[in-house]
Amino acid sequence: MRIVLDTNIFISGIFWEGNFCSQIIDKWKRGRFQLVSSPKLIKELINTLRSFKISMDESLIEGWKNLIIKNSMVVYPLIAINAVKDDPEDDKFIEAAVYG
Asked: Is the pLDDT reported for residue 90 higher than 90?
């Protein structure tokens, strides 16, 4: 099974252990499903981690980036998809899902 995770899932799962989001991340780490990501999704996560209200050391942020790159299917969408009318910034998640 391949899954695209929203940035909010990562943020909640990284900073608050034991919740549903952290369980999803743990299942990904254990190989229960294949994460699909893209450069745009990785960039959004890294930027969010850097600016989040709970400070995270840059080495940990780089660790998450490297973990995602190494342990996911990174896709490079060639065609922009305009599907999320209420929040066009979320189109990148649809693009990753389609290409994954």
From this structure: no
Burial 75-90 (b: 16+ CB within 10 A, else e): bebeeeeeeeeeeeee
**Residue of 43, 46, 34 whose CA lies nearest to 100:** 34
Q: Whole-prediction pTM value? A: 0.92
> Which structure tokens are listed for 44?
């959004």
Q: Is 81 helix (H, G, I), strand (E, B) or coil?
A: coil
- How does residue 82 score in pLDDT terms, banded at 50, 70 and 90? confident
CA distance 91 to 52: 22
CATH topology of domain 2-99: Rossmann fold (3.40.50)
